[in-house]
Amino acid sequence: MWHIIVTSTPQIFWAGIKFTIPLAVISFVIGFIIAVGTALVRISTPKGNSVTRSLWRLLKWFLSFYVWLFRSTPLLVQLFIIFFGLPNAGIQFSAFTAGIITFSLNTGAYCSETIRGAISSIPESQWEAAYSIGMTYRQVLFRIIFPQALRVALPPLSNSFIGLVKDTSLASSITILEMFMVSQQITAKNYEPLLMYTIVAVIYALFCSVLTILQHYLEKRTSRYVKVAGE
């Protein structure tokens, strides 16, 4: 047993460093950018002529549909549609690219609601006060509202990233050699499924524990100037 642990653990861990973590990080960064753009569009009020307002409303409807679609369908089904389904329509991606696209769009849909809620939680009086001293919408948003909203959104965003690290195990279904798939390949050779899946579970737990510690640190750093009620 110890021989299997010693020889298999480095292979699984290396697959995590080579595929699992990059897949999660790249997807989350892209998904966060999508989420911010989606949230800002959905909370904004269109200005300009009737054509501009109509186009803006159409964009808001499309983004609302996108969020609904990716929050209403299983992630595994989304992976299969993009990797196995789209080639029938003449659109083909490598396994890693398909994983990035799927995880990014899924993350963007969920995180956009987190960011939208965080921005909406900032009192309207702060917008009014900033406008009263001559600040533009862009200045108010990025100098006053967004930094506060990001602090509010940090815990759920961190949870989304930790969840994404675990969800990358689904990438094995589209042939990405991440940790879970490597453990399956080793299991097919040594016929020790309980031991191998326990090892991969421990490594996932290790990664997520490190991320949880980082999350707590960031929460303390971003909240160091916030006064606690009663102080």
From TrEMBL:
GO terms for molecular function: L-cystine transmembrane transporter activity. The keyword Lipid metabolism does not apply. Residues 17-215 form the ABC transmembrane type-1 domain. The chain crosses the membrane at residues 12-41, 61-85, 91-111, 194-214. It is a multi-pass membrane protein. It is found in: Cell membrane. Keywords: Amino-acid transport, Cell membrane, Membrane, Transmembrane, Transmembrane helix, Transport. This is Amino acid ABC transporter permease.
